[in-house]
Each structure stands twice: as structure tokens, then as C-alpha cells.
Specification:
The chain has 254 residues and is an alpha+beta fold. It has two domains: 106 residues, Beta-grasp domain (Ubiquitin-like (UB roll)), CATH 3.10.20; 135 residues, Fumarate Reductase Iron-sulfur Protein, Chain B, domain 2. The protein is 31% helix and 13% strand. It contains eight helices and seven strands. The strands form two sheets. It has a five-stranded mixed β-sheet with strand order 2-1-5-3-4. Helix 3 packs antiparallel against helix 5 and helix 5 crosses helix 8. The longest helix has 21 residues. The radius of gyration is 21 Å and the shape is elongated. The termini are far apart. The mean pLDDT is 93.
Amino acid sequence: MSEGKTVTLIIKRQDGPDSTSYTEEFNIPYRENMNVISALMEIRRNPVNAKGEKTTPVYWEMGCLEEVCGACSMNINGKPRQACTALIDQLEQPIRLEPMSTFPVVRDLAVDRSRMFDSLKRVKAWIPIDGTYDLGPGPRMPETKRQWAYELSKCMTCGVCLEACPNVNSKSNFIGPAPLSQVRLFNAHPTGAYHKKERMETIMGDGGLANCGNSQNCVQSCPKGIPLTTSIAALNREATVQSFKSFFGSDYNV
């Protein structure tokens, strides 16, 4: 039934970080249950554009192929999402693929997400441990807190929420929704809470909470359905408490 059927992709390409971008069209054979990744792999197998000209294979990033690693994020028909879960049958043709514009382009559809990873370093998005030896069982987390913390832990640093956020751009140093949500996650952990004050002071400064415009694009675009705006609202409340504590010189935990 699909014999002779083709899929048309219009891809925004760029040979390097400082190169001029251009578009190239490809027609590839259709197969059932194709996703965007399999379409790109077909182009890589036979890099011939719609004009019949031999060209270079399209470059993109991928890892898990099951929406866990976040590497294959790109703009698909104008929306940031994962290429591995974007099914050809559910996309309007021609399918337009572009790199995420929030991050610098490395080549073609691959971008440098260092901005996001640097923000995670700024907010100490990890659980500190003292040494590598066995520390024994850690403090227990209440079940009610564990349930919502688990939802925040689903973040795969794909960068889609930063791409969707109008406040994350080349003229702003806003760290974005994902790092903010991770602050809430690690502040909730019994051991991670040791750095709570430092994290809060970081996001209360330049590029932090005050730069959020509450557009709510992030929560609508997140492929994992993480309640990002809920996290930001909770952090705003904690920031108010922290500012009072700092003003009165109190370091007790809330």
C-alpha cells in the first residue's frame, strides 16, 4: 500500500558554527512506523537531495532513541520536540526540520547545549557526598514529597523548554525553566538541602527567577510533562522566605 510513496523533508543546514545556513530538500521512500530519526538515517544512507544531487549526510545527535537522553531535540514543523518520538504519519508534509535557535549551532541540526549545562553547574544540581566510600543508608524522604520529586527527576536536559521560552535568548542570561526546576528537586532532597541557601541565592540573582516572564510555554512543550511552572511558583515563594531570612540574618531551615 505504501509502495512508491515518499516523504519530503526540508532541512535547515549549516556546515559549521560560523557558516551561513541554507535549506535542502530531500525525498525519501516511505515506510510504516517511521519516525524523524529513521528518515534522517535514510538520508545518511543515501545522501542525495530532491534535485538528484549528491550531498553531505545531514548531521544530528541521537542516543537512546526512546526519549530518555534528550540528544535529538530539534524544531520539527516549527515546534521543539524529540525526533525519536516524532512519527512521520502524524506530521504535516513537507516536514521542516531546523536546529533549536536558543543554542549555538554546531552543524546542521546539532546544537551546543552548554548554556543549559553551565546553568545546572551554577545551581549545584547534584547531591553532594563526602568521599566515595560507603556512607550507609541516607535520610528517608517522606512519600508525599518523593512522589512529586520523582516527576521533576524525569528531566532529560533536552533543552526543549529553553527553546520554547521567549525569555531564553542571546540577549538574556536567564538560566531557564529546567535548571530552576532542578533547584526545587535538589532542595527537596534531605542531603541536597545542605546547599539550599546557596542555590536560592543563585536563582535570586541575575538570570534567575526575576527573568521568568511566566509565558508558560515551557510546561506546554516539555516532552516529559514536568510541572515546570509549579516548580517556578514554589521557588518564588521560597525566595520570598529566603529574602526575609537573609534580611534578619537567620540561617534556620524552613
